[in-house]
Amino acid sequence: MNLTSEGSDPNSDLIFVNFNQDCSSLAVGTKKGYKLFSLSAIEKLDKIYEQDNEDICIVERLFSSSLVAVVSLTSPRKLKVCHFKKGTEICNYSYSNSILAVKLNRLRLIVCLEESLYIHNIRDMKVLHTIRDTPPNPVGLCALSINNDNSYLAYPGSNQIGEVQIFDTVNLRAVTMIPAHDNPLAAMSFSSHGEMIATASEKGTVIRVFKVPDGCKIFEFRRGVKRCVQISCLAFSTDGLYLCSSSNTETVHIFKLENTKDKPQEESHGWMDYLSQAVKSSATYLPSQVSDMLKQGRALATARLPNSGLKNICALSMIQKMPRLLVASQDGFLYIYNMDPVEGGECTLLKQHKLDGSLECIQNEESSVHHDGPLVQPGGVASYANTVRQHDDGSPDSSPGKHLPLTPEWGAESFANVLRRAGGPQGALFTPSDVVGDHNSVEVMDGNVHRYMKHHPGAGKEITPSLSEINKNIVIQ
C-alpha cells in the first residue's frame, strides 16, 4: 500500500506498508527509513530490521530471505536491491519514469511504471523482457503469482474497462486477456498456487474470481449494493479457500470459495427456505441482471475497522495455528482479528499494533492474561468498576441501597465488573440512577449476578436486553 498519492499527513511518517508473499512479515516505509516486522505472534510485532537514513516509498521483501527491494521518495526512478542482514547493496537500476510498484517471487522481479513493465531475472537482476506501451496505469496496479510453476503477471489491459492481461514471466509470452469488469480495475490478486485470480473494479460492488490461465469465471461475490466503494486490496488465504477484501469503508469482507453444488443440501424448515428456493428456481425467467445478482455469493465473515475513509490492505494468515485476518491501515495501526472458518460471522478484534513498532498498551488492564476477545479502544472513559474499586477512601461504596453513578459510556459488562470488584450481600440490588431517562439495575442472588435490567420510567415494565446473558452467572469474588 503506497500512500504517496493519498496526500501527506503532517502528523504521520507512514508512506508505505505491505505484507510479504507468505504473510510471515510486514514491511513499513516511512519518511525516515523502513522497518521489517515478524508476524509469527499476535502479542507483539517483533522488529527484524530497521534502516533510518532516507525516506522510503516502496519496500518489498522476498519471503523470509534477507533480500529487499527499496525505492526512496528522493530518487523515485531508482530501484535498489539490498541484503539487509549484511547491510550491503546488491545492485541498483534506474528507469525512465517513477517506479510505482515492485513485485517479487523466487524467479522474477517486476518493476511497474505508468506505461511499461520490466521483468528481471531475480538471480542476476538482468532485464529479461519489457512490456511497453501499456494503458496508463497511474497507481501501478499489477499482480505477480508467487508460485514458480505458475509465475504469471497480471496488469490492466485498458484504462476504460476492466480487462486483465495475463503474461507468463517464465516463457515470456502473453497468455490470455480476461474481460473481468465493465469498469476499470481497482484491485487484483493471485492465489498462492497461481491457479486463480481475483479482481474488482472501481465500482467496487462485485468481486470475481477467474481460473488461470484459461480465464474462466469460477466465482462471483457481491460486496454490496447500496454504495460504490474503492476496493484497495484483495487477498487469498494460503490454501485458496478464502478471499478477503478491504476498501475505504469500515468493513472488511471474507468470502468462502466453494461451489453451490459442493454444499450439502439442507432440509427446508420454514417458509423463508421455501421462498428462497422458489426465487432461485425462477431465476432463469428473470432479467439477466437480476438473476446474476441472485447467484452471487455473500460474505462468510466481516470485520469492523474503527475508521472509514482510509486506505488499507488485508491478508489471511495462520498465526499460532489459528486463522487470522490482518489489516494494516493508513491510520498507522495493524489490526489482528480472529476468524471462524466454519461459522463465519463477525470477526473478533484480538490485538492492534502501531506500525512504527512502538509499544502501546491497548488491551484491557483489568486482565493481564491474553484472551481472544474484543479490545477496549484507547482514549475511552474509565470503567465503572474502576470508579468504585476503592471504597475505603471516601469514594462511593457498593452497599445495598446506595445509588452509584453510571454514565452512558459505561455498558452493562462494566457494571458487572463492579460486582466482581466490590462484592455484595445476597439479594443486594444496585440501582445507578444518574442516567437520564434510563435506569439500570443488577440483582445479586447467591453470589451471582441474578438479573440485569433496564428500567424505563413511565413504561410500566422492565426490559431485559441481550446483554443479560453475558452478565448472568458472574461469580462475585
Short description:
This protein has helices spanning 271-281, 288-295, 384-387, 412-422, 468-471, and strands at residues 14-19, 25-30, 34-38, 46-51, 56-61, 67-72, 78-83, 88-94, 101-104, 108-112, 116-121, 127-132, 143-144, 152-156, 162-168, 173-181, 185-190, 196-201, 206-211, 217-222, 231-236, 242-247, 251-256, 301-304, 312-319, 322-329, 333-338, 345-346, 348-354, 429-430, 439-445, 448-455, 462-463.
Brief descriptors of the model:
mainly beta, 477 residues, 33 strands, globular
Ordered list of secondary-structure elements with their pairings:
Elements: E1 14-19, E2 25-30, E3 34-38, E4 46-51, E5 56-61, E6 67-72, E7 78-83, E8 88-94, E9 101-104, E10 108-112, E11 116-121, E12 127-132, E13 143-144, E14 152-156, E15 162-168, E16 173-181, E17 185-190, E18 196-201, E19 206-211, E20 217-222, E21 231-236, E22 242-247, E23 251-256, H1 271-281, H2 288-295, E24 301-304, E25 312-319, E26 322-329, E27 333-338, E28 345-346, E29 348-354, H3 384-387, H4 412-422, E30 429-430, E31 439-445, E32 448-455, E33 462-463, H5 468-471
Parallel strand pairs: 24-28
Antiparallel strand pairs: 1-2, 2-3, 3-4, 5-6, 6-7, 7-8, 9-10, 10-11, 11-12, 13-14, 14-15, 15-16, 17-18, 18-19, 19-20, 21-22, 22-23, 23-24, 25-26, 26-27, 27-29, 30-31, 31-32, 32-33
